[in-house]
Amino acid sequence: MNQTAVESRQPADPEVNEQAVLDYLLAHPDLFARRPEVLEKLELAHSAGSAVSLMERQVDVLRARVHKLETHLERLVEAARDNEGRAENVLRLARTLIRAPSLAAVAAGLRQVLRAEFGVDEVFIGLNNAYYKRNDIDGLVPLEPEGRIAKAYENFTRTRLIECGPITEPRARLLFPKAEVVPQSAAIVPLEKDKYLGMLAFGAHNPERFQPRQGKLFLEMIAELVAAALRARLG
Questions:
Q1: Which residues contact 109 (CB under 8 A, 6 or more apart)?
Q2: CB of 39 closer than 8 Å to CB of 54
Q3: For the chain, what are the domain ranges?
Q4: In Å, how far from its chain's centre is CA 157?
Q5: Distance from C-alpha of 188 to C-alpha of 206, rounded to nearest angstrom
Q6: DSSP H stretches of helix in the chain
Q7: Domain 100-234: which topology?
Q8: pLDDT tens-digit profile of 130-154?
Q9: Distance from CA of residue 57 to its chain's centroid?
């Protein structure tokens, strides 16, 4: 027997054969449609140790994909409903602020709507003392450049970026001195980021109410509405 004949009888490289099979299946995706009897003979190892047919495995895979898609769709629908509810609440807030006859009414209306519709327990409105110097309106606080609040929130005053998350008791007491229950989480939002009219602070008893990575869109919308309402009445 010559060398060539011996080499022809030697088994081929299994990795080469496997790749060839994969390439052929990918190039002929209708193979199993043309030869359905092959599916019945193929068996795959199951996680439980038993053997299942390729068709059964495919069904399991499809079921898992469908379940994953259904779960994702449910989350999207739930998020859409939440956003729709928030949008309606923002509209309600806009009506309240537009109808407010005074600065005091703006502050009172803001507190009322945020507590009733947004799950906010405490509200702070701080105004740059270049625009507001009074101390006789409940809920409006003039912010002095060297004041305690400005120093405690120096980074916020510098960057004017929204801050959300847990709040320490000293910082909470500084913003919400009349709160019967100290807020555990808060959102700090600038009023007119460029001109810096001031800042809003929303406090919540729930430590999970405001989180660092939460969406900021509705907070920005509320801040714009409040800034417009305040500007219109500051003169």
A1: 93, 96, 97, 99, 100
A2: yes
A3: 14-59, 100-234
A4: 24
A5: 16
A6: 3-9, 14-27, 31-34, 36-41, 54-99, 103-117, 148-152, 154-159, 169-175, 217-234
A7: Beta-Lactamase (3.30.450)
A8: 999 888 888 899 999 889 999 999 9
A9: 36
Crossing angle of helices 103-117 and 54-99, rounded to 10°: 160
Distance CA 177, CA 130 (A): 23
Joined tokens for residue 102: 């005074």
Q: How many Å from the N-terminal Cα to the C-terminal Cα in the chain?
A: 108
Q: What backbone phi and psi angles, to 5 degrees, belong to 191?
A: -105, 120
- Report the distance separating Cα 188 and Cα 163, nearest Å: 5
Cβ atoms of 98 and 229 within 8 Å: the answer is yes
161's CB contacts (< 8 A; 6+ apart) are 190
The amino acid that residue 100 corresponds to is A
* DSSP assignment letter at 163: E
pLDDT higher than threshold 80 for residue 61 = no
Dihedral of alpha carbons 29, 30, 33, 36, sign: negative
Tell me the longest C-alpha to C-alpha distance in the chain.
111
Residues, the chain, total?
Answer: 235
Tens-digit pLDDT profile for residues 100-113:
999 999 999 999 99
Q: pTM of the prediction?
A: 0.68
